[in-house]
Amino acid sequence: MTSTFPPRRLLAVAAALALIGGQVDAKSGHPKPKSSLDGSEEACPLGSFHCAPRPYNFAICRPNALLEFYDPTLDKSPDLRDTSPTKLHQARTVDSSDQTVYHFEGDVKMSRADEQLQADTVDYNSDTTDYDARGHVRYQESSQLMAGSHMRGNSTAKRGIADNVRYQMLDSRGNGVAEQGQMFDAMHSRYSVATYSTCDVGHHVWEFHAKSITTNKDTGVGVARNATMWVGKVPFIYLPYMSFPLDKRRKSGFLFPLVGNTSRSGLELSTPYYFNIAPNYDATLDPRIYSSRGEMLAGEFRYLIPNSENQLNSSGQLNFEYVPNDHGKSDGLADTSGQNRYLIDFTDNTALWQSWRFTTSINRASDSSYVYDYGNALSNTQVYELASSAAIVGGGKWWNVAIGGTSYQNMNPFATDASLPYDELPYATLNLNVPISRWLEFGMDNEIGDFRKTGYVDGARADFYPYLQADFGSSAWFVRPKVAYRYTSYQLQDGYQNYGYTGVLPTGYATPFTDKSPSRALPIVSLDSGLIFDRSTSFFGNSYTQTLEPRIYYLYVPYRNQNNLPLFNTNLMSFDYWQLFSPNQFSGADRQMNANNLTGALTTRFLDENGVEKFSASFGQIRYFTPQKVQLPSSPDTVSPMTNWAGSDYVVQLDLQLSDAWRVNTTYQWSPNTHTTDVASFELQRRLGTDGILNFSYHYRRGLLEQYSASVVYPVSDRWRLIGSWTYAEPIKGVVSPLRGTVEALAGIEYDSCCVTLRLVDRNYVNQSYYGFGPVPANDSLRDNAVMFEVVFKGLGSSGGQIDPLLHRDILGYQ
Predict the structure, then answer these.
(1) DSSP state, residue 200
(2) Among residues 533, 530, 523, 551, which one has the least CA distance to residue 622?
(3) Is the pLDDT of residue 496 over 80?
(4) Cα R_g (the chain), whole angstroms
(5) Rounded Cα gap, residues 499 and 493, in angstroms
(6) Which of 69, 426, 624, 757 is most buried (most C-beta within 10 Å)?
(7) Quick one: 202 exposed, middle or buried, by C-beta within 10 A (0-12, 13-18, 19+)?
């Protein structure tokens, strides 16, 4: 098997339909919306976190935008030319004195296989296959059309010369005019004093004027020399040499430049160049200029390496950015002015033997301010640390193993390394899932790791978690008992007595770690059971199957005092509906909660005739028979007191999608202990036409955030789309944070035509690197701004595409 990369071509935006209004259509036969007018591509499903780009769609091009003599009935394959005879279909007069040289006159039409020649007058030699066509000459073959005043050549040699040419490439939509066109053979042509564009014939938004244009169908590459690009009637850029694709194959050449402006780096100009090295190698070099910081060289290298059996053996990608001399200002803890700065991102996945592989992910930067200075534009989210890891992984039908290590680099310029997670160098995991019978299985989740962090207690931890579980039931009921045993032990490094939960202890600190080899062992017993009732029902004339699903989950875990165990990678998880059925409220292995709990929950669903869930609602609560004693530290020297609640929050979850145009999700949590709302969320998504979307959401978590968000892709017409998103946060009582008011606002506009796409986006946002890490620098603002402009000339190659990742991130369902 030979592995190749997908073509690096810009995917055109499909045409928009007009805004679809009206009420929700809940009919089961409601057609799914399409992302293209021809219906070939389905629109991104509602609720999708990421939508694939749409393929080229030429529905917005002018209908029948081909040269007027195009014959759609002509054979499309050139393979039969050598064995096919030349046929005369029509001519007003035919003259031949020696039965070898023929003179045809008056609306002459001749063909051979996929070739067709029309002219006022044609002279043809049947022995040599030389021809000479004059007057209103029209030539068609499988890959191109050509019209001119005079054309002569040889059919057998597949060569010819035409004057005063109009041409069109059927595979790439390229077209233009030329003083002369020359075919050297079936695969190579040249046009002299010519124009080239992929716009509609006769309606060129842009075009190249070149001294010569050559086309090579073998390589799929066209080359223009001494070319000037015109946009409308304005010369845009002069290029002594330029290549462009004739089909979908990858090719070397310049990608579209990107122009932008950010508060941190100033005006940005990016001019990437793509190298098509081999079918399984490629690279991109991207020189950039930042007006506030200087020059940068960025790049990307990708590879696919087969083994001796021609199976994929290794794949990887290297991304890098290098700044030789940054002359911008620095707001962080370290001064980076005048420094050489860099960012490296390397990933690799290599087969070793059978089911074993070696995986690598290396992410390093020159300093903690790098991403803050260069990444907070459009296409990047906030990054507070970079993780690097390497591991050997393997697995089989009932087991998997990983042996490796993970380390972190601080990327918050306003925080110290104390904010980082522990490095785990090395670690090993072994997971088993062995079926004993049809209803019984044995499993183990095991992990051993060595945790390191400067200024904090270091040590090794081993966590062994064997279990035995059964699964009884049918389509109407289930009972799933599970018995597990968890043993966790530590071997702390020398000097452990000098540390507490928050790092090195000052002299006389009251609560250091007192045991070098602490451990914890306890059983975990659970019983999960439920019933599933169903009935047929109907609403608004549509038939549904309604289910009623009561569920009971009992969990027992005895209490063990764990106050002397360090916290390497454990945190309290957010409480939600799925926590009702979880054996532990803590992530990681450093804490195992005690429990004598009973969860009761009820779910109902409505399924349409195709089995698609249109509505679901769930309600549940945990009842505690004993206090929750295991807690995380509430301050450097104390552990939070146990909770003595009779029950957890009441949790309600509702999902509704009665049609392909509307979707609603909501969650609500109410505490019977404090009589307050702890969590509330509401999310609404509405499809607008075929390529528009509207999102609205509200999220509330007591004492932490209250936030509103809205985003939209609004198709104004089949060519124009408005793009926007807005996030607003209410101030939280008792919490001092810049996260208030408008956190982020984005506005943009997109124009799409048959041969060009324009995008302009402006983003204003609160720089979250400041959150909770000391005072804000007096000479700086909490807000940053980024403006990006992209021009995509379709059919000339690929786009760097820094705007699309932002829109995918900020607008749910953007496509």
Answers:
(1) B
(2) 551
(3) yes
(4) 34
(5) 11
(6) 757
(7) exposed
> Assign residue 703 a region: left if phi > 0, alpha if psi is -120 to 50, beta otherwise?
left
- Map tokens 């932490």 to a residue: 704
Distance CA 713, CA 797 (A): 26
380-436 pLDDT, tens digit each: 456 788 999 999 999 999 999 999 999 999 988 888 888 899 999 999 999 999 999
pLDDT of residue 548: 96
Which of the pair, 800 or 123, is modelled with greater confidence? 123
Task: Determine the Cα–Cα distance for residues 766 and 146; give it in Å rounded to an integer.
Answer: 57
Q: Contact, 811 vs 388, CB < 8 A?
A: no
pLDDT at 668 over 60: yes
Q: Which residues lie across from 519 on neighbouring strands?
A: 489
Average the pLDDT over 244-269 and give the result: 75
Residues 552-574 have a mean pLDDT of: 94
Structure tokens at 287: 């020189």
Q: Residue 648 burial by CB count (10 A; 0-12/13-18/19+): exposed, middle or buried?
A: buried
CB atoms within 10 A of CB 179: 12
| Apex 65 CA angle, 63 and 68, nearest 5 | 115
Angle at 247 between CA 243 and CA 253, to 5 degrees: 25
Instruction: Return the pLDDT at 22.
Output: 30
pLDDT of residue 802: 63
Instruction: Output phi, psi for 637, to 5 deg.
Output: -120, 10
pLDDT beyond 50 at 32 = no
C-alpha span between 629 and 559 (Å, rounded): 7
Quick one: three-class SS letters along 355-401?
A: CEEEEEEEEEECCCCHHHHHCCCCCCCCCCEEEEEEEEEEECCCEEE
396 by Cβ neighbours in 10 Å (0-12 / 13-18 / 19+) ranks as: exposed
Tokens 């690009």, residue located: 229
Q: Where in the chain is the domain with CATH 2.60.450.10?
A: 70-166
Please give the Cα distance from 188 to 220 (Å, whole number): 10
Q: Is 295 within 8 Å of 323 (Cβ atoms)? A: yes
**Banded pLDDT at 38 (limits 50, 70, 90):** very low
* Distance set, CA 217 to CA 193, 624, 637 (Å): 20, 74, 75
| pLDDT in the model for residue 415 | 81
Do the beta carbons of residue 217 and residue 187 sit within 8 Å?
A: yes
- The superfamily CATH assigns to domain 70-166 is Lipopolysaccharide (LPS) transport protein A like domain (2.60.450.10)
List Cβ neighbours of 450 (8 Å cut-off, separation of 6 or more): 424, 425, 426, 427, 458, 459, 460
Short-list 680, 660, 682, CA closest to 813: 660
| Structural element, H or E, at residue 492 | strand 477-492
